[in-house]
Write a structure and sequence with these properties.
Blueprint lengths: L12 H12 L4 E5 L5 E5 L3 H7 L6 E8 L2 E7 L9 H4 L3
Antiparallel strand pairs: 1-2, 1-3, 3-4
């Protein structure tokens, strides 16, 4: 089942810059978020797995640093999957 595409390389230049800056600042997790702030979390090293799992969903993406003191949001990528055709997201 390792047919995962490298979707990180399909991110926009702006999203790639935000991702690179967040990783440099110590991001530990990627959180694919719903409007109610619930989320699916992936270790930052597995961001591509998360991108593939949620590529057809309209979810936001927060890059966060989780420590014992709490969670710090380092970047928000609200349109991270803009490379996906809307017909693929809404097949109906």
């Amino acid at each position: 089942m390792n047919n995962a595409k490298n979707l990180v390389k399909e991110l926009s230049k702006e999203s790639t810059a935000k991702l690179d800056a967040a990783v440099a600042a110590g991001a530990t997790h990627a959180r694919f978020t719903y409007a109610d702030n619930s989320f699916h979390a992936y270790p930052i090293e597995e961001i591509n797995r998360g991108l593939n799992a949620h590529r057809r969903s309209r979810l936001g993406l927060k890059l966060v640093k989780v420590t014992e003191e709490g969670t710090e949001t380092l970047a928000r990528l609200p349109f991270w999957n803009s490379f996906v055709d809307d017909r693929e997201i809404n097949p109906n």
